[in-house]
Write a structure and sequence with these properties.
Blueprint lengths: L25 E13 L4 E7 L2 E7 L8 H5 L7 E10 L14 E12 L16 H6 L1 H4 L3 H23 L3 E2 L16 E4 L7 E4 L4 H9 L4 E9 L11 E10 L3 H20 L9 E3 H8 L12 E3 L1 H4 L5 H8 L3 E7 L7 H13 L6 E6 L2 E3 L8 H11 L6 E7 L1 H21 L2 H4 L4 E5 L4 E3 L6 E3 L14 H4 L8 E6 L2 E8 L4 H10 L4 H15 L6 E7 H8 L30 H6 L9
Parallel strand pairs: 3-5, 6-9, 11-17
Antiparallel strand pairs: 1-2, 1-4, 2-3, 4-5, 7-8, 9-10, 10-22, 12-13, 13-16, 14-15, 14-16, 17-20, 18-19, 20-21, 21-22
The chain binds one RNA strand through strand 1, strand 2, strand 3 and helix 2.
RNA sequence: GGGGUCGUAGUUCAGUUGGUCAGAACGCUGGCCUGUCAAGCCAGAGGCCGCGGGUUCAAGUCCCGUCGACCCCGCCA
């Protein structure tokens, strides 16, 4: 195959942009050969670029150099330049499946700019190969409009975020990528220092401490599209590298943060998806969210809620319930409309799910015209059955799922069930599935308590301001202290979280005392921030939104990997470049590091 | 750290209780074909059944280990 030079050929349009209005124009296009349909005489070629596909038609002609003869020798993914006339398709030939389907390009010239190996998988609209292979050849997978479009959306969102925040008086300020390792929170990615052997930088888990320093600096309103790195185990919605829309403001309280973010989301969804969001977003306190939905990020697209069944089943004589309640536990109930139709196998799968969240079992019983049927029903009197049905507001044909356990386990395991069943429900309710249900969750506990050891640790981070009314309990009953914390939730996903920060040294010291950090510890770990706070720290607060997750939801994808140009696998490997990778012995020597081969 | 699913032509997969099980489709190569758009028709090439060990007369199939991908629990302030 003889290759041509681009020379002074310059394209006039992108393939995917051609429309009826371009009919009659001479166009020059560049792109990749998506597919060839050779009819012996006339020949069709789908040409692809970032913007999409357009059909190019070659009419037969004489001579080996004629465009149609040269086109015959093309292969998949060859890079070509085409000159031709954009013409309307005959009515019967219009293809409404493609955006460019009302026109086609009558080719008058063809240059072959590069050839291509046969790709390892066919580039179709739907993925035609396993994800690992597509990740190894990510640059090919990204040629598929399905994925290219997501990156385009990501770009649009980033632009809207920047322009909106600029309009609100925010400055975009970069913070370091090589930062001080922190013992708190997620595991750090460590970077050894060559100049200081034995000392390490960390890659930032978030710009948290730096953005607070910027508030002390008087920057007032800061934002950044910040890369954040955490060396923790991954999930479909968790990558070791992700991007946060990181925001911090001075002289504000919760209301300013909520209003800002609501305006930002409205702008983003409006400009990028033409979706009109209703503001303000509803709010719910953490306690209610856990009680009603068994989750701190409930999906409100479906409204089924948990019920506390303790009163209904008290002294029922059913040992599991009675003993749990006597021990201070809870009996929680999830009603599933129409769930009586679930097979035994489906019910057992629900129980397995509940067990994964720590439940010892899942009691299931069907609501029939004659009372409850199955599971614990035979141990329950008619009166108790009646009370259960009433408490749940259940109707014939419903399935009642009950968990008797420690309250958090009962709620969380039924919350997982609710979430699973809700996904099924959404399949039958496309309008609900397509809705955007934003929600603020507020009043999180300031501390988390290890159920085994009883040890308290910060639920968000050490610098979160306790709620004013709970300050008196900081010393006496810290576990009940709520923080000025808030999460933004969308359709069951946590989009971001933030808080109003502590700017007063006395409160800071009291909080550190609760989690057992001595003055000496504090000095060593983040003395630099505490020192800064002594020089006139303004009241401040903010939050960070997960850009990747926002894009994932907006694009309707189920994996974060689809929103990132070069993502990592579940084991934090990059298949396209094969990292992480061993390094040469001399590189380790420079760093005064030795690898323990026995591991 | 733990649980689950998967690994067979380039790709997606089928392969029953261990015994013609090396198969299909798509892709690829060659030929035919002047309106297709997942073009069509004919022919052909293409296999370390992830890797290592074991059980057995016999292993793609059963067992153990290992590597990798995916999903989940723990973890991720």
């Amino acid at each position: 195959m003889n290759l041509d030079h681009l020379a002074d050929f310059r394209r006039t349009h992108r393939c995917g942009d051609l429309r009826r209005e371009h009919a009659g124009q001479v166009v020059r296009l560049c792109g990749w050969v998506h597919r060839l349909r050779d009819h012996g005489g006339v020949m069709f070629l789908d040409l692809r670029d970032r913007a999409g596909l357009v059909q190019v038609i070659f009419r037969p002609g004489e001579g080996a150099d004629h465009p149609s003869e040269r086109a015959r020798r093309l292969g998949s993914e060859f890079v070509i330049a085409v000159e031709g006339t954009c013409v309307p398709r005959p009515d019967s030939m219009v293809n409404l499946q493609m955006p460019t389907g009302t026109v086609e390009v009558e080719a008058t010239g063809l240059s072959v700019l590069n050839d291509s190996q046969t790709p390892p998988f066919v580039l179709e609209e739907a993925p035609s190969a396993g994800e690992d292979l597509r990740l190894e050849y990510r640059y090919l997978d990204l040629r598929r409009p399905e994925l290219a479009t997501v990156l385009g959306m990501r770009h649009r969102v980033a632009q809207v975020v920047r322009s909106h925040l600029d309009g609100q008086g925010f400055w975009e300020i970069e913070t370091p990528m090589l930062v001080r390792p922190t013992p708190e929170g997620a595991r750090d990615y460590l970077v050894p220092s060559r100049v200081h052997p034995g000392s390490f930088y960390a890659l930032p888990q978030s710009p948290q401490l730096y953005k607070q320093l910027l508030m002390v600096s008087g920057m007032d309103r800061y934002y950044q599209l910040a890369r954040c790195l955490r060396d923790e185990d991954l999930r479909a919605d968790r990558q070791p590298e992700h991007t946060q829309i990181d925001i911090e403001m001075s002289f504000i309280g919760e209301e300013e943060v909520f209003a800002l973010i609501e305006g930002l989301m409205r702008e983003v969804f409006g400009r990028v998806l033409s979706a009109e969001l209703a503001v303000p977003f509803p709010r719910m306190v953490y306690r209610e969210s856990m009680d009603r939905y068994g989750s701190d990020k409930p999906d409100l697209r479906f409204d089924f809620a948990l019920t506390d069944a303790a009163d209904a089943v008290r002294d029922s004589g059913f040992k599991v319930f009675d003993e749990t309640l006597a021990a201070g536990g809870s009996v929680m109930l999830l009603r599933w409309p129409g769930g009586a139709a679930f097979s035994r196998k489906e019910q057992d799968e629900l129980e397995d799910l509940a067990k994964r969240y720590g439940a010892k079992g899942l009691a299931r019983t069907k609501v029939t015209s004659a009372g409850l049927d199955g599971g614990p029903a035979k141990f329950l009197s008619a009166a108790v059955q009646q009370r259960l049905v009433e408490a749940a507001g259940a109707a014939e044909g419903d399935l009642l799922c009950l968990v008797a356990d420690r309250r958090d386990i009962a709620c969380r395991s039924l919350g997982a069930l609710r979430s699973r069943l809700g996904q099924e429900w959404l399949k039958g309710h496309p309008d609900a599935a397509k809705s955007w249900r934003f929600l603020w969750i507020t009043e999180f506990p300031l501390f988390e308590q290890d159920p085994q050891t009883g040890v308290l640790s910060p639920a968000h981070h050490l610098f979160t301001m306790p709620m004013e009314e709970d300050l008196p309990f900081l010393a006496s009953d810290p576990a009940r202290v709520r923080g000025r914390l808030y999460d933004l939730v969308l359709n069951g996903s946590e989009l971001g979280s933030g808080s109003i920060r502590i700017h007063r040294r006395d409160i800071q010291e009291a909080v550190m005392q609760v989690v057992g950090i001595t003055g000496e510890d504090a000095e060593r770990r983040f003395g630099f921030l505490l020192k800064a706070f002594q020089y006139g720290a303004p009241p401040h607060g903010g939050l960070a939104l997960g850009l990747d997750r926002i894009i994932m939801l907006m694009a309707g994808r189920s994996s974060l990997r689809d929103t990132i140009a070069f993502p990592k696998t579940t084991s934090a490997s990059s298949l396209v470049d094969g990292c992480p990778a061993p390094v040469a012995a001399e590189d380790l020597r420079d760093l005064k590091l030795r690898v323990d081969a026995g591991m």
